[in-house]
Amino acid sequence: MASVGYGAAGGEPAIILTPLHGAVVTLDSFDLAAFPNYTTPLTLESQVTILEGSTVVFSSGSISVSNVGHMHFAGPYSSSQSITIEWGPDGFDVGVNNVAFNAEGGNTVPEPSTWVMMIAGFAGLCAMGRRAPKWGSASRA
Amino acid sequence: MTNRRILAALAAIGLSATSAGAATVNFANATCGGGGACANSDPIDPNYGSTAKVAVSYDSDISHSNPLDQLRWWDSE
Question: Nearest CB to A111: which of B19, B27, B59?
Answer without folding.
Answer: B19
